[in-house]
Amino acid sequence: MGYMHLLSLFFTQIILLLVLLLVAETTAKVPAIIVFGDSSVDAGNNNVISTVLKSNFQPYGRDFEGGHPTGRFCNGRIPPDFISEAFGLKPSIPAYLDPSYSISDFATGVCFASAGTGYDNATSNVLNVIPLWKELEYYKDYQNKLRAYVGNRKANEIFSEALYLMSLGTNDFLENYYTFPTRRSQFTVRQYEDFLVGLARNFITELYHLGGRKISLTGVPPMGCLPLERTTNIMGQHDCLQDYNNVAVEFNGKLERLVSQLKRELPGLRMLFTSTTYDIFYQIIRSPAAYGKLYSSFTKEF
Hints:
Rossmann fold; globular; hydrolase activity, acting on ester bonds
């Protein structure tokens, strides 16, 4: 078992925790799953845009039905797919830009996510991917198409009862803030965290005004333990970069407080924040034996 299996374990545990928490928070039937975010939840939108950041080649998709790459940055299904199935919907959620699907396919679930994006527009510019504001524009287009397909009353019911999943933020730090000097010249890292939280607030508030009431926001993982960061940490003997991990913990705390604030400010909003992404990933890295027989080099060379 190697890196792809590690990711599979990581995703599976997050999925199970998310589903348990979401079921506890959401007693009504969920008619659709609507997804925003980055590569952690991209179902293939990057396949059809002009970017080098794609996963439409092997070994991606080897465990997906048919064994073919779909544009998901995973060997099989990704968290929204499992969550959709857990709510009795389709076993995989299609990408909105995939021309092989239509509004009839999107009626019970749709993905607007784009690998490489972030809260900050400057992050999406790095690899020419879909910015978060554009994901929301696609959602508005989807709303118009769904109203034409099922009628205004049914569509509005779907919008208000649907489960909205948001997963992003890592790229803002790793592909943008720590890689290029522009944002570092404008913000300290804590100021940048606050800047991103403000962007998250604006996005969620607009989504609320568009009808969204059940929203799950996922925090960032231990960024300093991701493969590239450990590989390039030569002076630290390829261990995790604790400074990056500290930023992740701090940023997650700010997002969690944001969720609490929004639930007080926006009537009828049922919103869940989960930071389990961080905890589970970190446990797998530090105690791989507890999650199966992984290569021993995972704890030293990532």
